[in-house]
Amino acid sequence: MVDSGAVLTLRNLTITNGKIIGGDGAGVANFGTLIVDRMTFANGNAAAGGGIANFSGGSLQVSRSAFTGNSATNGGGGIANYGGATLSVANTTFSANSTAGSSGGGGLWNNGGLDVTNSTFTANSANNGGGIRIAGGSATLKNTLIANSTSGGDCVGTLSGTNNNNLIKDSGTNACGLTNGTDGNIIGFDPNLGALTGSPAYFPLNPGSPAIDAGDNATCAAAPVNNQSQNGVTRPQDGDGNSTAICDIGSYEAIFPDLTATKSNNVSGAVTLGNSFTWKVKVANIGTANATFTSGQTILRDDLPGGATYGAPTVQNPVNVSGSIGCTIASNVLTCTTSGGSVTLGATTGAFDVAFSVTPTVTGALTNPASGGVCRADPLSALAESNESNNACADTVTVNPYRVYLPLIIR
User: Fold this and answer.
1) Are residues 176 and 62 in the same domain?
2) CATH no. for residue 392?
3) Does residue 204 share a domain with residue 336?
4) Which of 221, 245, 280 is the last residue of a domain?
5) 405 in any annotated domain
6) One domain, residues 215 and 138
7) Cβ neighbours of residue 186 under 8 Å, at least 6 residues apart?
């Protein structure tokens, strides 16, 4: 318990399995000033505030933390914030918290002053307000994600002031009255979350999530977010691969690799039958996260056209690449895989070339890839990328016939 007038900071700890019969705040009961950073509150049970109860006169600041599996018999499975108390929540995840009481608020119950910024509420449950229940006081939501409440609706109650750039899967009264498309709010859409991971735990955003690059950068830059995220990635990032860095909605800031493949030749697109040329494929990672292929995974496949013979491929010009890459051509298929361990193409600058000689055997167009085939980085989609549309490569070389020049004989 934090007494009135006292100041306590909790950082990098886990408080779990707390239980109070008939009392509030199984993890902490706060009457003073409580600062919580990088904390986990799990599986606590109380009458209210299975994780934390913030009483009148109390000031509670929560950042980069997780509330998971807490429960309350009355209200506020994760946190109960009473009248006369103030609560700031940033970069924090609430998951699988619950309350069976009529007060509601499986994740958070509020009757005081509440500001929630860049936080994620999912899979919480209650009779009223599975994610958040605003019973009174004042409350603002910014850059916050609330979804997948198993009962009671995602957000129930009346918000105050400006509430912008939130994503709430429910709509209407179960979205605290927010309207889709107003003030950057995304209402009625699935956030496309990944599996719970990390410590303190968070939910990644899968590629294509509507929460990616949908937040407000000014909100992220200001306190209490301060361009931080729960998963440790500095905000904002370009999560959707459109070359513009915008912070994400929720506690997680998404970064992904973005592989590209380009193919070129050294004969300006034309060669005479009987001569050889070189085809080169460049694979690059222009994304903001490393591209790591584990042992045995395919980095590049190129289905080569018939009408030519091919020399052994060589890997050239590796930049910001760790690990060994092996390339072979068999039955007119170029395959590059990891060799003896993982291979990482570093964020933004990781790249390598694969070059091989081509000797045409017939005239006409050598069109790559071959009909029905691919020339593609990550052909088996082993990696989640911000942009899957730029993985393919193509090139065509025209093979011209011999030109035979006969002498002019004048008699």
Assistant:
1) yes
2) 2.60.40.10
3) no
4) 221
5) no
6) yes
7) 166, 167, 168, 180, 210, 211, 214, 249
Most distant CA pair in the chain: distance in Å?
122
Please answer whether residues 94 and 70 qualify as being in contact, where contact means their C-beta atoms are separated by less than 8 angstroms.
no
In a domain, 322, yes or no: yes
Confidence class of residue 271 from pLDDT cuts 50, 70 and 90? very high
Residues 282 and 364 in one domain: yes
Looking at the structure, do residues 306 and 201 belong to the same domain, yes or no? no
User: pLDDT tier at 243 (50, 70, 90 boundaries)?
Assistant: confident
**Overall number of domains in the chain:** 2
Contact 186, 164 (CB under 8 A): no
Whole domain around residue 364: which residue ranges? 259-400
Band of pLDDT at residue 24, cut at 50, 70 and 90: very high
Q: What's the CA gap between 239 and 233, in Å, rounded?
A: 11
pLDDT digits (tens, 9 = 90+) for 73-126: 999 999 999 999 999 999 999 999 999 999 999 999 999 999 999 999 999 999
Cα dihedral 341, 198, 218, 90, rounded to 10, equals -170
Last residue of a domain, one of 173, 194, 221: 221
pTM: 0.86
